[in-house]
Design goal:
Its main location: membrane. By secondary structure, the chain is an alpha/beta fold. It has eleven helices and nine strands.
Length: 336
Amino acid sequence: MALTRQTKRDSNLRKGSVPEFGRALKEHGLRMLMHGLARLPLPLLHRLGAVLGWGVARWPNRQRRNALINIALCLPELTADEQRRLRDRNLREFGKTYLEIAYLWLRPVDQVLSLIREVRGAEWLARRPGQGLIVLSPHHGAWELAGLYLATQGRTAIFYKPQRYLDDLIRESRARTGADLAPITARGIRVLVEALERGDFVGILPDQEPKADKGAVFAPFFGIPAFSMLLVNRLARRTGAPVIFLFAERLADGSGFVIHCLPAPEGVDSEDDQVAATALNCGIEQCVRLCPEQYLWPYKRFRCRPEGMPKVYTGPLDDAHALEQARRVRETLARM
């Protein structure tokens, strides 16, 4: 019996080692790919990314469908042809976003920061002595560059979600300009509070759907109920820190980026959760409207639905059904 149990344990260990070996192999492959891409000039990476995005836009797939559904939901003032054209431009930008990341992570910091051609609204980064500042960077444009730039302006703590792959590389890259990375945990939130109380910057990606009901409410995003975080509100109320938005717009010719800083709408620090979440989403909308083709439209922002609302990301993958799905969702919302 002992021999049998030992044999089973050995067999289980061997089985467990296969996924771990596969993960390590994939990690190594991804690192090699990133280092290879980082050697290429940024304009070439952008051209390759645009070609990749063009390919994604050519055949039915979920990214293509979800982007069109989101655009049709959020920008109903556009015609169907305009929505499709925006989706196609967006997927080309989507390709650029993911190929340029290697360049932003692995090229020398001075070389990366030299790509910033202009900073608009830099006065919003000013702080009173001892006062912290909450800086929100949506998934818009080159969000990796936004975080690197912010940390050059003063001591910064950035809220960070640990990743299954390339986690060490991501942490090292994001910390290159001096940022402290705070994991998305209760301990990480304490790090953010302490940073604000010291008078530091705190960077947060504000447009991801929270994983739990606690600390989130449904609030309109382009008029559509979206499950929205209350963390920004809680931090602002607890520390008295003002809130701004910051994102890096990608220039069309591949020559670099423009940093935009905008004040958050009034109410983001309201004691009313609904008012606060609505103000947060309104600020994200203001960023998106400056260059809508660079927002992360393929992301399932409306995956979690209020009771009685239909699922959003479902059905066939062709454009006609995607537009029809968006129309049904809006009609259901209008009847509620």
